[in-house]
Amino acid sequence: TRADLTEADLRDADLRGTDVTGACLARANLTDSDLRGTDLSRANLPGADLTGATLKKTELTRVNFEGANLSEADLSHAILVRVNMTGANLAGANLEGIDLKGVLLTEAVLSPAQMEQIKNN
Q: Is the whole model's pTM more than 0.70, yes or no?
């Protein structure tokens, strides 16, 4: 879609199953939003606030989360391929069943996070 949603206020939004491929969500507020099953491929979310957001089973191929706040977010079983999480805050996030292969986590905050069944092959 390549929509420009820079600094959009999407708190508590129900975006389940939405296609936001290539969208710009820089500094957007997605606190407590529901993004289950959403396609965020190639989306740009630097500095976005996804505190408490649900991203369970979400397509996150080539997404830029640089400096984003994903604390307490549910990313369980999300599909992460070539994702940039440099400087992202993942404290308290549910990372169960995700594959971190190819995910850039430089200076990311991961503790404490739920990390059962994480793959890093």
A: yes
